[in-house]
Structure formats: C-alpha cells, structure tokens
Automatic annotation (TrEMBL):
GO cellular component: cytoplasm
Catalysed conversion reaction: a ribonucleoside 5'-phosphate + H2O = a ribonucleoside + phosphate
UniProt-recorded name of the protein: 5'-nucleotidase
UniProt enzyme class: hydrolase
GO molecular function, one term: nucleotide binding
Coiled-coil boundaries: none
Species per Swiss-Prot/TrEMBL record: Cherax quadricarinatus
Amino acid sequence: MARVDELVTTIVESGFSSLQVIADFDRTLTRVWYNGKECETCHGIMDNSSLMPAFFREDSNKLLAKYYPIEIDPKMSEEEKIPYMIEWYEQIHELIVKCKVSQESLEEMVSSSNARLRDGTEELLSKLHSAEVPVLVFSAGMGDILEQVLRHFNVYTDNVKVVSNFFKYNDKGVMIGFKGDLVHIFNKNENAIHSSDYFDKLKGRNNVILMGDSLGDIKMAMGVPQPSNVLKIGFLNDKVEERLESYMDNFDIVLIDDQTMGVAGSIVGLMK
Ligand code: TMP
C-alpha cells in the first residue's frame, strides 16, 4: 500500500510532461455491462451484427465457448494457454475472411452495437488530449472495429495510438486478411511497435499509468525505453474469487466489477 501511495505521488508530482498512458481496450476502456446487459467487445460487435452472415455468428460463438474459458482459467499457465489462443485467433480470422466484410459496413456495425466506454472515459481521454499525453491503446481485438468505436465516441484524438490486429482490404474495400504479426492476449508488449515513430513521443515520459483486465496486459509496458514508474490498474471483471490473488500479486490496484474510470480519472485530475 505504501508503495502504491509513493508511486501515485511520484506520478502526480512529476506532472503531465512525464506521463504516458497504456490501456487495453475491451473491458478496460469499454464497459462490461450496462443496465444489466452485457456490452459487446470488438469481437462481440461482429458476432452479433446483423450485417454478418448467420454462419459466422454460430461458428464464432462455438469458438468463444471453447476458448474463452481457457483464456481465463486460473489453473493453467500462460505458456499452456498460448497455443490455444493462437489456434482461436487463426480460426476466427479465417472465418472473418470468409464473410467478405466491407470496410463501409464497419461504421454501421459499431453504431448499432451496444459497446460503451466506461463512465468517465471521455473526460479522462479529453484531459489527456489537452495535456498532450500520449495514449497507447493495445488490443488483441480487431483494430478496425476498435478505431471505429473510438471515433464513434469522439475520443480518437491525435495523441492516441492503436496497436492491434488490422484488416487488409482489396481495392474494392473488401476485407481479405490481416496485416502484420498477430497480437493475441499473451504477446502484448510494446516491442511490437518499436519501429514506430510513436516511441519518439515517449522520450522523457518515465511515468506510466497502465490499465488492463487480463494478466496478459501487464506486459504492455515492457517495451518502455527508460526505467519507469509504472502504476498498474487492473479491472477484475470475471471469476473474481479464483483470480483475485493473482490480480493482487500482479497489479498495483485491483478494481472489482468497476464500470468507471474513476481511479485513473482522480489521479489525472490531481495533475498539472
Ligand atoms: P483486448 O486485448 O482488447 O482485451 O481484446 C481481446 C479480447 O477479445 C480477449 O478477451 C479475447 C476476446 N475475443 C473474443 O471475445 N472473441 C474472439 O473471437 C477472439 C479471438 C477474442
């Protein structure tokens, strides 16, 4: 506790010019539920969209039912889980390609979905934008959908960089595959963007507020170049009893079934 106090004090006192933010997307920037109904993730938006063929919904839900319990199984190690996660992504990606998704349809998919940002996310991101704090959104979801969600809620500002799985399109705007290396739940580390000019923006920003909902998210700050003060905020949304101990061991602050950005918002609210 004293260590967390010290970390928060250092981050607050160093101010915006030393800060960068790294956040997972699904169930971290977005809500888990709203009015008693589960909110859609990037994948959920496509799974439930009427613009997607029925076979996609059926097959992707079967894959979700098989692989999601493995993702959150507290008894399996990360090494044991990785081959299953790769298997999951490969199958789902193949399935999406079969659907011949048009780039044009994404806006409607997102606007008709029930995906929502956590309460206070717009305010937090707006403050970070005004203070020119770089924000990395690091997601094992689908970049094109995620970007559309950020646009939909007017928070995709020029200080925000997204690292995720992006669609490749043909010249008719039909999705034909994915670009670059696969980002899955357990290979998130900033090495994935070492070649990017985003790192130039991070010079002198030794303090990091990192937010995630999976133990895999802790790695998101691994590529930060300078020795850093990393405050890790973990959202524990599911299998709370079984996973609380490991979340407490790995995150500095653990928020149970919190649907807000209250904690990060109050820290940033103290900063100059
Ligand atoms: P995140 O990195 O933004 O949290 O996104 C990854 C989440 O997406 C992770 O919890 C697994 C989930 N997921 C689905 O819900 N459906 C899928 O088909 C796949 C491949 C992943």
